[in-house]
Amino acid sequence: MAETKIQRTGDAAGLAALIARAAGQTDGEARGLPPVERWNPPFCGDIDMEIRADGTWFYMGTPIGRQPLVRLFSTVLRRDGDGKTYLVTPVEKVGIRVADAPFIAVEMSVTVKDDENVLTFRTNVGDVVEAGLEHPLRFVIHGDNRELKPYLHVRGGLEALASRPVMYDIVELGESIEVDGVEMFCVKSAGAVFPIMPAAELEALSR
In this structure, what are the phi and psi dihedrals at residue 56, rounded to the nearest 5 degrees? Predict the structure, then answer.
């Protein structure tokens, strides 16, 4: 059974080879992103894989140091309606643990198109995503220290958390815009407006 094979795979490279064969990929390189949203395989249990809050991937308690392996695993990730994240192939689906977001936005660039700023992000697994209506940004104020955490929709239900330097880059582009009658501190990309927080709250935090 596929489940038995995965549970007996003792290293990340072996697991990657199994997934590559099942997903029709070779040499750790995807021929474009696999259509994981169209696959409906049986659930074969959870495996001991975790994506920690800093974006580091672990398998059986050991960091996965080879970036091509991490990239391969990232291409077959899917977050389902139950809120859980899975590695998915046409023949099996296994659950993994994600501490926060599965990806980290590690770089942002700004270009101008049709007189509008376009924010383009690169993730730690190599995705390049333009923020806009199809790939919105959302902002969470987290914890007692009220840490600002920006998230970018990458694909499906998967998001990238902006690294701290990228978060500062985003905030530098912020401006005050009225949204539904409330003055909000926002950032714009590709014509879309993404509220960060009420302008009054930002002023209070700045004191």
Answer: -75, 135
